[in-house]
Amino acid sequence: MMIPKGHNPKGLALIIRGLIHLYRLENSRKYLEDARRLAEIIISQRARDRDYFCVGYDFFWQAKAFTVPEFTPNMIVSTFAGQALMDLYEIDGDDEWLRYVLEIGEFIEKELKLLETDEEIAFGYIPGERVIVHNANLMGSGFFARLFTHAENSLYRGYAIKSAQYSVNAQRGDGAWVYGEKEHFQWVDNFHTGFNLVSLNAVQQFLGMDRWESNIKSGLEYHLEHHFLDDMTPKYYDRKLYPLDIHNFAQGIDTMLTFGYSDKAEQLLRRCIDQFWDEKENYFYYQKTKLYTNRINYIRWSQAWMFYALTKYFLLNNNR
Questions:
Q1: Per-residue pLDDT tens for 12-45?
Q2: Per the confidence metrics, is the pTM higher than 0.90?
Q3: Which among 132, 136, 169, 206 could disulfide-bond with 145, CB atoms 3.0 to 4.6 Å apart, if both were Cys?
Q4: Where exactly are the structural domains of the chain?
């Protein structure tokens, strides 16, 4: 189709985080050097019309609620980049990485704050769109909680707590979160629920609190009961199995490891390898439906996510 090759900052951020896992595991400088090289590529992809650093995708894309021109920064890609840069900063102490992370915080403050009260903040997905999606809001919360540990700006702590509280208040009584607040966002899916739980847990961990422990418990119970079969095959939605999707395997491994379910993480990993690993070509498939297997090799959606999940698994299980 003559589409030029480009770099996906979110995919690169996941690979950086996986490389840092390997560096912590094996203490090889090569992993750190590769991570730094990829970080420089992310920085080269910055939004071209802002004075502060923030990132989006290098292509035009269409969501259910909006269309987005290329290089428009957004919450998801910017916070993924910010988390990767904080990983690097914690390893080598280079203030340049932290400077970029602080600029991401400035972007979120100035362009993504949709509403604020004394108790709550709701962050948006992209500038100029009043769309509240809970995983994006909670990723902003987790980002500010971690940034607070490095910058100790009380505003960051407040942003983390108040945005987390907003999505906690939107949690259903049975523990589930719908994807977002628009009428056509009223589904409950697997990997976005995992994002919410991991982000909310990160806020508590970084801020040294247990304010939402009961919310995490009920959310995790719903997640385990409604999003996985008995053998830990991940369903796509709470009421629908198909399509089986590599994203749900990868985020499921991350979620189970985050909450100490190592056995469930291993079950997920084994099921994933059995069903999605191409032994000949050495990559993970994208999706399986009832009728066919989609074997497209997606780097960001599939390989980068599984690389991150696998390296976290090895790190937390002592290379078992």
A1: 999 999 999 999 999 999 999 999 999 999 999 9
A2: yes
A3: 206
A4: 1-74+81-94, 112-227, 241-320
